[in-house]
UniProtKB/TrEMBL annotation:
It comes from the Bacteria. This is Trk system potassium uptake protein TrkA. Signal peptide: none annotated. InterPro entries: K_uptake_TrkA, NAD(P)-bd_dom_sf, RCK_C, RCK_C_sf, RCK_N, Trk_Ktr_HKT_K-transport. Keywords: Ion transport, NAD, Potassium, Potassium transport, Transport. Residues 133-215 form the RCK C-terminal domain. PROSITE patterns: RCK_C, RCK_N. The keyword Ion transport applies. Residues 1-118 form the RCK N-terminal domain.
Length: 221
């Protein structure tokens, strides 16, 4: 595929290198030509100086042949405008925009622009390390309503089946991490000591899920 990236910061340059290593052609846009210094010397993609929402600039980057467009500059408005130009003017279906203000995520979602809210994601990662007990989100959908969360079960659940956990907590187990490997469980999969359980749930259900899981430990005391 040919992929156009707007923003040659740390995220944009990292994406460019990963995509090129996977065999895709890449064009990267930045208004500051000094930003291209983040690209490795052997980078074969196109470097375009300009604004990603300028039609002539993204046309020069090969947007008409692109299968995807990614906007990861430092400005929310620039990212959204350029993503809309890529989709609405040039017909690119696969677009993603990074935003710093998670409150805008729902608005952008309604416009059909998938977004990544970096501030909320970073805050969630820090909270997971500061407050490891309970379910803390690893990922949120753009609206912030649905989360993938790591659940701290405790020893009381060892030996129980995944179905029992789902019934007690009224949630869905997405996968387990066991001995460093990911496992998609069946209903009769038995929870083992050391398993890390990941659930999919509504964000406002996490407190209830934590309480249901903790109740098992209290019963055994």
């Amino acid at each position: 595929m040919h992929i156009v990236i707007m923003g040659c910061g740390r995220v944009g340059s990292t994406l460019a290198h990963i995509l090129e290593d996977k065999g895709h052609s890449v064009a990267i846009i930045d208004q500051n030509p000094e930003a291209f210094r983040r690209l490795r010397s052997g980078f074969k993609g196109r470097r375009i100086t300009g604004f990603g929402f300028d039609r002539d600039v993204i046309a020069e980057a090969g947007i008409e042949q692109a299968s995807a467009f990614v906007a990861v500059s430092s400005g929310d408005n620039s990212n959204i405008i350029s993503a809309r130009v890529a989709r609405e003017t040039f017909g690119v279906d696969n677009v993603v925009a990074r935003i710093y203000d998670p409150r805008r995520a729902e608005v952008y979602q309604r416009l059909g622009i998938p977004t990544v809210a970096t501030v909320r994601w970073t805050a969630d990662q820090i909270l997971r390390r500061l407050l490891p007990e309970g379910a803390e989100p690893l990922w949120r959908d753009p609206t912030g309503e649905v989360v993938l969360a790591e659940l701290d079960l405790g020893p009381a659940w060892v030996g129980d089946k995944v179905a029992a956990l789902e019934e007690a907590a009224r949630t869905r187990v997405a996968f387990l991490s066991r001995m460093g490997e990911a496992l998609v469980p069946e209903a009769d999969t038995v929870i083992q000591d050391g398993d890390i359980v990941h659930i999919m749930a509504r964000a406002d259900d996490l407190e209830r899920v934590n309480a249901a899981v903790a109740a098992r430990g209290e019963e055994d005391v």
